[in-house]
Amino acid sequence: MRGMTAVVTLIVGAIGAGMSYYSQKSAAASQTRIANSNFLLQSQAAEMQRKTAQFQFEQNQKQFEIEKQQQMQQANMLRGQADNEDAASRARIAATRKDYERMQAIQRARLAKSGVVEAGTPLDILAETAGQMELAIANQHFESSLATQRTRFQADMTEAGAWNAEFQGAMQGFRDQSEIAAAGSRIAGANIERLVGLNQAKQMRREATAGLISSAGSLYSSYSNMRYTGAIR
């Protein structure tokens, strides 16, 4: 009877050791699955965020570059328009001067035919005509200069808008690249968590093996003692 009890005790101990080993091994396997599963989910989410941020970065840069080029083209067009206005103004002023000079020549010719000496009232007429000519030319020059200055100012403001678009593009690019880098960091962090989980699972397997070896040693020691004391034969 005592021998049977001893055998049962050994069997129960062996079963307990086996169940403990199996439980720890199962827990280690579960830890491994969880670590890999978490890494897969986190890395996929982070990779999707990285790709989205990369796409957004490229689209934003294209948009800002298009905006900059459009405004630069507009600024160049306005400067060309101002140059054309200058040229047209010079042509109008030259035409006005010729018209007045032609008018003065006609006045002189008529005065000469009438036999009037260019003194007194006739001279005043010629002086008034010359004054009107200079006033008209000065007025034309002022108006055209004001128009071209306004156009060139618009060109400068448009070009400033182009450079502002480039600056805004650089700032947005910095934000987008920061998001890309953050997504990469999340992938790296997920991998670190996976490695930590795998290391824990490895440690659990080691502990399971060590526990099994320890239990086996204890059972063998108990068996030896039982044999020595005659509890089992």
Proportion of strand residues: under 5%
Residues in helices, as a percent range = over 70%
Give the biggest sheet: none
Weakly predicted, low-confidence segments: none
| N- to C-terminal distance | 12 Å
Could you tell me the radius of gyration in angstroms?
50 Å
* SSE order: HH
Strand and helix map with partners:
Elements: H1 2-114, H2 121-229
Report on the structure:
With 233 residues, the protein is mainly alpha-helical. The protein is 95% helix and 0% strand. Helix 1 (2-114) runs antiparallel to helix 2.
Short characterization:
It is built from 2 helices and no strands.
What distinguishing features does this structure have?
233 residues, mainly alpha, 95% helix
